[in-house]
Fold:
Amino acid sequence: MSIDVTRLHPLFFARLDGVDLANVDAAAFDAIEDAFAQHRVLHFPAQKLTQEQHVAFSRRLGPLEVVTMGASIDGGRSTLPEINRVSNLTLDNKIRAADDLRRKYSKGNQLWHTDSTYQHIPSKCSLLYAHKVPSKGGNTEFADMQTAYDDLPEAMKRRIDGLLVEHSIFTSRAKIGFSDFSAESRAAHPAVQQVLVRVHPVTGRRSLYLASHASHIIGWPQDEGRALLAELIEHATQPKYVHSHKWTAGDLVMWDNRHTMHRAMPFESLDEERDLHRTTVQDIGNTVELLQKKVA
Ligand SMILES: [Fe+2]
Structure:
């Protein structure tokens, strides 16, 4: 398998041609891991994957999350428990109505975020595979959090060094006016803490670790912490750090949740189908606990 790597943004995001994700040998897998460490978001065009093949490749990158949060809102899970269906279709493949509950819940994906920072063990990476895409809209935008960190003034780097942040799925959903969760669902997703600055395990580069799920800074007055988080997100999502991906059916895009943010762009058509499947690979531990182990 001969792999061609083409950088599509000056800072990150590469397209890998010549890869069949249903048949990746050890050498190709190593090449993909190298490219992933370097570019942080990889686009594999023209894939033909069954759900089982999508899951099998994802599992080589680490243990997979089982869909819980989205599944509690009317059928977010696909036929396999590891596949989160990012779709405007119902389970029997009918287009959801404009006022559909799951459509409303999914609007939270239009806020800048990284996946699963609200879980105690967050996500290493996500792999989103496009089955059906609309003719217009519905791009996914990615932001490079490593360069955004590098470009911060030294005083700001010192100010945020060692800070911990509280994350909750209910923080991001409240931002879109969605608070219709059962007591059981709230109890199942308690707030967690994550570090604000991460270090890449392969390259050693630092990055901001932000998300719409980030609520406030531990030990700071809440308003002050929220203002700093908003300032950092605004800084990190300036156009120079952002690449917008236009989907074609057959695309699989794999992004590093530790060192990028992303958001879904609006897709307003009510009569075109959009059906993507996501697997989510877990990180190796809670970011605060990993930091403490290194310090100890
Ligand atoms: Fe996401």
Observations:
- The CA atoms of residues 68 and 122 lie 14 Å apart.
- The chain has one domain: 4-295.
- The chain has a mean pLDDT of 91.
- The pocket of fe (ii) ion is lined by residues 109, 113, 115, 262 (CB under 6 Å).
